[in-house]
Amino acid sequence: MRRDGAVDAADVVMYTQGVNEMKKIAIVLTFCLLISCAACGTSEKISGTEETASEIQGWVNELELPLTKEAAVMPYDGIYPQHEPYGTGIGAMPGRVVWTYDPDSVSWDGNGYWWEIDHFDERAILSMVNDSIASLGGKENAKDGWKALFTAHNGGAGYRSGERIAVKANINGSAVYDDDTSGETKMSYTNPVLLKALLTSLVEEAGVAAEDITVYDVSRLFPDYMVEMCTEGNLRGIHFVDRDTGVADESAPIVWSRSFSGKVNLLPTCVTEAAYVINLANLKGHSYGITLCGKNHFGSFINGNAMRPPEGADLHQWLTRNEMGIYSPIVDLMANADLGGKTVLYMLDALICAPSEGASITGDNSRWQQAPFNGNYTSSVFVSQDPVAIDSVGADFLMNEPAVTGNNGALRGNPTVENYLHEAGLVAEAPSGTVYTDSRGHTVTNLGVHEHWCSSAEKLYSRNLGKDEGIELICIIK
Length: 478
Hints:
The protein is an alpha/beta fold. About 25% of the residues lie in helices and about 15% in strands.
C-alpha cells in the first residue's frame, strides 16, 4: 500500500496467479477492507495498470463486492455501546485523528529497559511526527501543517514569535515514590525520543524559539537523561518544570463544575503564562481503565501534595465508581481555559504501550495482537486537534487489544470507562446534568466529537464513511 492510501493492483495480481477460487475470494475481501479502511484515507478504488486493476475489479464484480467504503462495513463488534456522533468535530480538519504507524521505529528485543534510546530510530520517529502534523493540517509538509494548526486554533492569527508553548508530558511512571531521576523504571512514561522529535519539529518546522518552550509535569520528576537529550543542539534553551520546580499561580485556581471535598488546585505559571499548550499523553491502560489526553492533566496542578496531587484534589473517586452518567473532573480539565482552551495539539505516544500505569513494561505485555501489529509493538503516533476524538480512538484501540485487557481487569469488558467521553461529547447537555464551565465562569457548549469505530477490523468512523459529522481516522503506514 502506498503512503497516499492507494492499493497497487500489480502488487496484488502477482500473488494471485493460479490460486483457487476460495483464496481468490479471500484476497478480494481483504482488498475491499483495505480500500475502505481508514488507512486508505479517501481512496475508493484500486490503482495500478489498467489491465491489472480491471482484473481485480472483475473478481469483485463476480462476487458482487463493489469497492466502496459503504459496502465493506462489517458488523459492530465493540464492548462500548454504538451510537451516532456526539458533539461537533473541531480543528483545522474537524474531527480528524491521524495515526502514523512505522514498524521500523522500534527495535527493542525485550531485554533491559523499554525506554533506552537505542531501541528507537530517531530519524524515523521525527518523520512520523512531521508527516502526522502535515496530514492533521491538511497540508503537504510539516511547516504548512503547523501553520494550519495554529491558525485554526486562534482564529486566523497563526503563531507569533515570542509566544510561549507549554508541553504537558506524562511522566507518571518516573520517580513515583521518591526523588530518583535516573529514569530506571520499567513503568511507562513519555517516550524520550518522541518528545525530542516533537520539540525538534516545533523548532525546525513551526519556527518556535527553543527558549519559548517549556516541558512540564508538576506531579513527577523528569529523568536526567531525558532533560539532557532534549536540551542539546538546536533544542538548547528549552525549559523543564517538574514537581520540585513548578511555581503555582495563586490567581489561577481550578474551579470544578461540581462541589466536592479536596484541596485548592492551582495551575503552574508555565501554563498560565503560555499562549499555547501541547498535550503529549500515552496510549495505555490504567488501574481505573484507560488514561489518555484527558487524564494527562492530572499532572497539571499544584495543591501541596507533591507526590500525589490528584489524591489531594480527591479526584479518583470519580474514576472508580464504574458508572455512566456521572460527573467527570476530566471534562473540567478538558474545558479549562488555560488547559484545553489553549491546546493546539493533542498527541498520543503509542510507540510502546503499557497495559496499566503501574505495570512493568515487558516485551510480552507490550506486543499487541490486533492488526496491523500482529504480535509486534504498536510503533505508532496519534495526533488531533479534537480532544474528544483522539481519546475516543484511543479508547477503541485499548478495549480491542488482548495484550491490554488480558493484563487489566479494570478495562476488560468495562464500557463505563468511557463515561467522561459521553460527558465531553454531550457537554452542552451532559448526561450527569452537570453544567461544565471553563473555570472562568463561562459555560462550555462543545469540546469535540465522540463515537466508536464501525468494527475492529475496519476501524472506520463516520467521516471515513462519507458523513458530514463525526471522527475521521487517517492512517499513514510507513
